[in-house]
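To fix ideas, we close by showing one paired sequence and structure record:
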Amino acid sequence: MDVNGFSDPYVKIYLKPDIEKKSKHKTTVIKKTLNPEFNEEFFYEISLSELTNKTLEVTVWDYDLGRSNDFIGGVCLSCHSQGDALRHWMDCLKNQGRRVERWHILTNELPQTLSHD
């Protein structure tokens, strides 16, 4: 959180591996909150067979004007995930074309595949 006691969070999403660097989606920044609700949708056009080899990387950042943005937390969803993240990924694969929503607890470690921008 910033010195004012709040954050200015936004979310970055990548579908990795992302050789052409075209998978990035970014939400809008929600100013001065510790409990953001983004209610934004994103779409990837990809075959089910391709999706089994991908990882959806979701990271939350605190926007800071004139400084580096601060990492808040993240979650990775893939066939290599564990627990709730794996269950969510498998539900998405089983329910192709349908919305599958879940809450996740964010880890405080940057994913190993993250490319900074």
Remarks:
- The chain has one domain: 9-94.
- The chain has two helices and four strands.
- The CA atoms of residues 46 and 54 lie 10 Å apart.
- The chain has a mean pLDDT of 89.
